[in-house]
Structure prediction request, 674 residues.
Amino acid sequence: MSAQPKSLFEKVWDAHAVRILANGQTQLLIGTHLIHEVTSPQAFGMLRDLGLKVAFPHRTFATVDHIVPTNELVEPYKDNLAQAMMDELRKNCAQFGVTFFDRASGKQGIVHIVGPEQGITQPGTTIACGDSHTSTHGAFGAIAFGIGTSQVRDVLATQTMALGALKVRRIEVNGKLRAGVYAKDVILHIIRLTGVNGGTGFAYEYAGSTFDAFTMEERMTVCNMSIEGGARVGYVNPDETTFAYLKGRPYSPTGASWDAAVARWRSFASDTGCRYDDVIKINADDVAPSVTWGINPGQGISITENIPSPETATSDDDRAGIIEALEYMKLPAGKPIKGVKIDVAFIGSCTNGRLSDFQEVAKYVKGHKVAPGVRAIAVPGSQIVGLQCEKLGLDKILIEAGFEWRAAGCSMCLAMNPDKLIGDELCASSSNRNFKGRQGSITGRTVLMSPVMVAAAAVTGVVSDAREVFAVN
Amino acid sequence: MALAKITSVSGRGVYVPGNDIDTDRIIPARFMKCVVFDGLGEFLFYDVRHTPEGVPTGHPIDKPEHKGATVLLSGANFGCGSSREHAPQAIHKAGFRAVIAENFAEIFFGNSTTLGIPCVQAAREDIAKVAAAIEKNPALEITVDVTALEVRFGSDKITITQRESARDGLINGRWDAIGDLIDGLTAVQATAAKLPYMSAA
Ligand code: SF4
Prediction:
């Protein structure tokens, strides 16, 4: 062991740094490249134009998620543009020798759910994907970057990209979360504290006893939304929970190489006493069930608070932001968020579309009915998650309660498939972005919250405190 | 690959006020159903430029006096949200060659630089000064000088900042890293050989 204690970020960076480029950036090796249909076709096009091949096809994995209809299983899809993207990805994977988890494989799903599920996402590795929520994979102690299409081209062609090192901020959450408080609330709380650009230039190391106790799925939910606070990278140090999750997955090492891998993975964890550029400490007790009221994920409050009003603004910017958000959201300033009428309830996405999310929801909605007039849809994040839920009968519980149970995909998280809001519908959503128009209607409104809070809103027809609706204590 | 040295960008400017202008606003997701980037320019800021019924709202970039503008000005945290390169592509295809803002979201900044679009930072008051000058005379030539780190307009100028690696890349014609990265392929193989998980299964 070297004398100088290092953070996981530094160790992974050093192990993958190829050389320093003329402009001072590092040529960084990307161990695992994940691709999907939206941001890869142009990159493959550029590759062809340059007459290049995929440098490491065996480290490149594709799936299809954004455009797949969740209630239409057979190709050709009704939407020609969606079908064209599907065909393009299939052609590119075949031509360049890339593994494609398509629907026929039974392993298709949202890229950030598929990687971990297959055991492709591993500690001490670097991962890139043309998608800003790639930070999800950091839950395993990987350094995972969202990249643009030109960088997708770079990684396809060279398995590297040019990058400047990030600063590291440790966000420590200690203690036990109160009943009815979830990982989603932790990250909404963090983003509310730092603002939507507070993380610019940083990699986040999430730590503390709360994270130690979290399951992998909970860690993924938090890492997933790092970018919503401006941080491109978020990670949790690998530990026994990480190794137990990975054991026996299709791409996990086996036999003697398993033991060697675990020893190696362990060595990447941040050393005690390593240097951080910043540290934030949060008490788990202070985290409440949270909801957003505005048009960015930093505009969040606890369910018991009132919607902010321009008078309570802390600055001119804040005031302008509140006015713009309230106007768009058509919400009353200074009034409780609790009781705001919803039209749609969406449970799914790469933030909260995993088995434990549906288990938790099913546990509470059993015996309840979706309120009249509310359209409620539940969308597993992958085919495998869907199957697991169906084996446990969770789909039946949800359907019985009045939810539609769909096939895997990004669905209503973004407006690239048939699942969309209509007009100014208000959606209680377990996804990660509440930007204007995000869910497919120019005037559609999104209120972000945990899956159980979405379920509570679905059965009451209004934004609700799940602890009261489901008598959680 | 020889790339142009982008030392400065000159042209008319247009000011799009607001903070946290996210990538969904720059290019709404439904316009990303494409396998090439061509044609994205007309959908830049689409949902702000049109009412839900499709009627133009008179957005700054649609004003006749701003036609042909090449310098885009905005507020803080410009380009936050997704990693979609469709956002800077739409800006580029709409004719913009430089963006001035208080600051930029990380991924957007990198994507823009790789396309050779200088994203430069300026103080809010200074951006307001340029915006006021454009308001007075929309035909005014704005020069974003990446080498001298200043923006000149009429007889006035403001200072700007830019991350050194991006500035170096632009002014030395190495803003797109692909050539450099390919040159390093032998070293890449050597680094990969030291990492057990990189070996072929
Ligand atoms: S679920 Fe939403 S955030 Fe996640 S990859 Fe799909 S579109 Fe992006």
Notes: Residues A 65-66, 110, 112, 131, 133, 349-350, 410, 413-414, 431-432 surround iron/sulfur cluster (CB under 6 Å). The two ends of chain B are 34 Å apart (CA to CA). The CA atoms of residues 41 and 91 of chain B lie 6 Å apart. Chain B has a mean pLDDT of 95.
